[in-house]
Task: structure prediction
Amino acid sequence: MSMDALTYDEPSKAKKATLRKIEEKGEELAYLQRKARELGIPILVVVEGLSAAGKGTIINQMIQPLDPRGFKVSCIASPNRDEQMRPFLWRFWRRTPSADRMAIFDRSWYRSLLDAKINGVISEADLEKAYADVRNFERQMRDGGTLILKFFLEVSKKEQAARLAALQNNPATAWRVSDAVMERHAQYNDYLKAVEQMFKETDGEGGPPWLRVSSKSTKQATLKVLDHMVDTIQKRVDEVKEGTPALTATNRPHRPLFRDGPSLTTTDLSRQLSKEEYREMLGSRQQKIQDLHHEVYRLRIPVVIVYEGWDAAGKGGNIRRLTERMDPRGYEVIPVSAPNDVEKAHHYLWRFWTEFPKAGHVTIFDRSWYGRVLVERVEGFCTETEWKQAYHEINEMEDNFRHFGTALVKFWFHIDQDEQLRRFQAREHNPKKQWKLNQEDWRNRDKWKPYEEAVNEMFIRTHAPHAPWTIIEGNCKRYARIKALDVVIEAIEQKIADKTK
Amino acid sequence: MSMDALTYDEPSKAKKATLRKIEEKGEELAYLQRKARELGIPILVVVEGLSAAGKGTIINQMIQPLDPRGFKVSCIASPNRDEQMRPFLWRFWRRTPSADRMAIFDRSWYRSLLDAKINGVISEADLEKAYADVRNFERQMRDGGTLILKFFLEVSKKEQAARLAALQNNPATAWRVSDAVMERHAQYNDYLKAVEQMFKETDGEGGPPWLRVSSKSTKQATLKVLDHMVDTIQKRVDEVKEGTPALTATNRPHRPLFRDGPSLTTTDLSRQLSKEEYREMLGSRQQKIQDLHHEVYRLRIPVVIVYEGWDAAGKGGNIRRLTERMDPRGYEVIPVSAPNDVEKAHHYLWRFWTEFPKAGHVTIFDRSWYGRVLVERVEGFCTETEWKQAYHEINEMEDNFRHFGTALVKFWFHIDQDEQLRRFQAREHNPKKQWKLNQEDWRNRDKWKPYEEAVNEMFIRTHAPHAPWTIIEGNCKRYARIKALDVVIEAIEQKIADKTK
Result:
């Protein structure tokens, strides 16, 4: 809670001048908040700092002049049970601001990393991986148009001691100075070291820079923070007004092309199974999936299955065969269509991050984030820069999933144009299935070539070793169902082996 | 997990016929799901039952034919930390379906009550209160147009024992038969008694009836459940097509009018404070609020403060003075304007329920659920039946908050028409404040009379003893700020006294 609330009783002349400046800056900030909202600029403010550095007081000064319709303060405590069962950035992705919002973080993704480092519960290798994930996250946000401001409030050990003592002396606040707080105070020097490493890993180099603020005088610190916010937001507002394009990442590490991936042209669509073969094979595989589903739950392995493919390639029926014997408490099918207004106002990966399964659960995406490099590319729903950037961002997201031990399966359901035509016509003539077919399906069909090109490029750029694509030959639905089951079984068994070895 | 998955290998003739019927019913259900979505009928399905009654299997059969875009399965476990800090219906309100959705609950609000009863952690009086809250909740949902279906799967003690043994004998599922499950099995008879009470409290009488289903044969049970769903949804679809109005509650308990409440006509708007008086009074009260905010957090008291009032009555500036020294980690201002698309697709109270503060936190609603009986009534945004019904529903919601120990403050900010005109004109002439004024404000002003009538009726119908209204005389902003602080301080001190006595 606030350490040094600003006081209004009989201020001295210098104090008065500072208070007046704070008020002025606050008014400017309120004006810029409205401008940024009008221009659709999402703003993400991170306030980090040691115990008793006055984060609460400064955030309160920051939000007082703002229009409450336009911001949200998130206080980051230790992750709860639900959050612990997701990749560590999941809870922050969920809270990233939409285009008309300012998200203010009191502590942030840095908190977990600093705490883990101090408590010695993370290896240096994992910490480096985590900082890489953080850099990617911040860069993806920035490339998506989000303005990120990061403040670090500094406080000397002596000053910290004095403030904690003051808290202890007030009966209303004494309980806040817990043993944990005192322990952290004792570890002051270790914290400083961890903080220096944090700066080294995440200050600048294309990412958003840190502003270090001495919190010795809360008023001066407040003024410095507000001043920096006004300057930075003003600059972005001007850029957007002048039509300066959103930044594009310039210093991404080089990604190899995955030339060993599948290809539509060499796929053998004649593969099939007879009714009898299918009957015989289906039951045992479904039983296997049912058993593995229990194992996955017990071992807390998250499973993500992506279904992409041509219209009418049989994804729906395939998903039904896959899930028929699963426990509905442990799986969910997420159908992905055009984003709604809320989703459009966020980063395009936001809606997929938020649907990431709890560890031990299975999420099946019926269409997915690959829409960015398929339909959005072909139909011109995003810019060329955006879909080209997306390969990289998707690889990073899937890396993130992998770091968390996810079993990831990606299917492309392939049929040929003749087979698609047959199925469209069958739907047209079946009153029960007519609803499945619309004008858009016919239009997509006319763009077979550009889609084919997009699919092949998608394979080359995202068939990473730990996130491989599998083409499902779909002309024979029975064959497709057995193959999909087999691939899922193998992927899960592999993860179980990794986890239990 | 599934106890008795339907098998497809070599079924007998009778089995085959049942499977065919299940498939047919599934297709009908899928058709009705689309119809209900087109007509905007939200559907809420509750599947309750004892351990090993086969809830999972039946839900999976239910969802297999459905379009995944149209439903969501929620599995209700014990409430997590976040949920425990809210009224017990909060987590269910959050999951109520929107108009284009079917929400399927595997266990539900009944789970908590059954468990609490068996474990002896709830008094009979509290249990009765909770069942009353449940009846109100289901009735509010129904009156809002939601179709509720409740299934209870029965299983004999002998059959339960056999199924648990089967689970234990399968290495993939043995771990699921935990000590807790075996303990519940041993308490079988106690459960039956608790279940009978549940039926007595919540079966019919205007509320949605229970369908009790023997789960001896999973196939027969599935068929019975699907059959009932098809019949019930078909009936509602027909009603809506024929324009039958949504049900209105017929057997609500009589609510007294609160004639001792405040009244706009007798309010003395001449009250004021000088600058010097104000200065002197403000600091100590803000300090008091700051200290109480700590206490509220420590004692885990939720605080809800409603700001209603005329346009330009000074709500914004007042909220700033109230929160100026609070810790931003412990309070949130929720500005309420016209509902967005997602909100419109839910019950009108949904967006307020979801914003209910964590115990120990303060939520300030800048406008609120009272919009239903103010702007929505006056502007005709809802029907007369709807706003008349709302008084009752709002009283019930506030009762719910009270049962949870909430400190609730409701302000009406009052100014006279001359003062409003002066403030509108001042805004018009101040470039920094012009954005605060729009055409709608002028239009609202023309409807002063009907608004006044709505406000006075609101007082009479919702000034309940534990949820009283306070008029803030707003012509003098200084007076209004001090009075609002005093009222909040008193309400919180009262709750602290209740809690610590």
Notes: Residues 1-9 of chain B have pLDDT under 50 and may be disordered. The two ends of chain B are 47 Å apart (CA to CA). The longest strand of chain B covers residues 147-154.
